[in-house]
Design goal:
Oligomer: single chain
Helix content: 25-40%
Number of strands: 9
Radius of gyration: 25 Å
Largest sheet: 3 strands, antiparallel
Amino acid sequence: MKSLKLLLMAALTILSVAGFAQDTTKHKMAKQHVNKMGYSCTMHPEVTSDKPGKCSKCGADLVLSKKEQMKMEVMKIYSCSMHPEVTSDKAGKCSKCGMDLVLSKKEKMKMEVMKMYSCPMHADVTSAKPGKCPKCGMDLTEAKTTSKPKKS
């Protein structure tokens, strides 16, 4: 009789822990879904999207949330000089006007300070250490810095 009570208590404990773990997982998944929403309306914050567009209520442009703006400042970002909302983590062309995407000012400054290596054939392939280009296999060469030497 005592072992039956012990077995029943163990089963209830396992079931309650399993139920709690599932609720936590659902909560995390819902939270991740919310984090994907990067754009919102300044007048209607409940209107969100994972890409730029127009507000369904007032027609205003959706803008990046403050959190997404901070993330972009930290990440290596390429953007269009004519359309700053068009960004990428790789070099490429602007989807609106076709201009080349350029590195952010912060990344340009980092590259001037750090010793960087790049592929002579693929300017978008850079590394902090020597190696091979993943696109063509050529040796990465030391990138020239754009800063001018100081005159004394």
